[in-house]
Design a protein that fits this description.
single chain, 181 residues, alpha+beta, Nucleoside Triphosphate Pyrophosphohydrolase, 24% helix, 27% strand, hydrolase, EC 3.6.1.45, Uridine diphosphate glucose pyrophosphatase NUDT14, cytoplasm, metal ion binding
Length: 181
């Protein structure tokens, strides 16, 4: 897969997405209602009397997507995801490769490549939001630069490790070069 740290230079903020993740939701159900999973099989899985709100399954994430188009480069896939999920048109030359690493090592062990892209308000050509026909319901969220590290360490805001790592990478590699206010 690919993921992209997006920084809007017009407003000095990061552009991330919020998505409902069924696995996160089910972990919260298990945490709050452990009895539901005890001695249950598919046929007798009980109905939850007091269901949790869907928001407990929502996480903050980097813009990302799977590599499922063999005729496209990782950069082309990343640019397509930025447009589809966040509404910004970024040229392939506007991407900077940060690194690649293994994600989901306990389940899939897949390789993810992380990119960095700077965008401006003028590059926004759409609303983003993903493709509902593919089951995506994505909310675009802006995190102001000055609040980003507080956001990264706030344990009440469910986020992926990619968000935390990329914000730290930005602080070490990009922030020192930004013009001082």
């Amino acid at each position: 897969s690919v993921s992209i740290l997006i920084f809007n230079t017009s407003r000095q903020c990061f552009v991330v997405v919020k998505q409902f993740r069924p696995a996160v939701y089910m972990c919260e159900v298990e945490r709050h209602h452990p009895q539901v999973f005890r001695n249950q099989d598919k046929e007798s899985f009980s109905h939850l009397e007091d269901p949790l709100p869907a928001v407990v399954g929502v996480t903050y994430e980097l813009c990302a997507g799977i590599v499922d188009k063999p005729d496209l480069s990782l950069e082309e896939i990343a640019c397509g995801e930025i447009l589809e999920e966040c509404g910004y048109r970024v040229p392939v030359t506007g991407l900077r490769r940060i690194t690649s690493y293994r994600s989901g090592v306990g389940v899939t062990g897949s390789r993810q490549t992380l990119f960095y892209a700077e965008v401006t308000d003028q590059m926004r050509t759409g609303e983003g939001g993903g493709q509902p026909e593919e089951g995506e319901l994505i909310e675009v969220v802006e995190i102001p630069l000055e609040e980003s590290m507080k956001f990264a360490y706030d344990e009440t805001l469910p986020k992926t490790m990619g968000v935390i790592f990329s914000f730290m990478w930005f602080q070490n590699n990009i922030a020192p070069k930004l013009p001082k206010k």
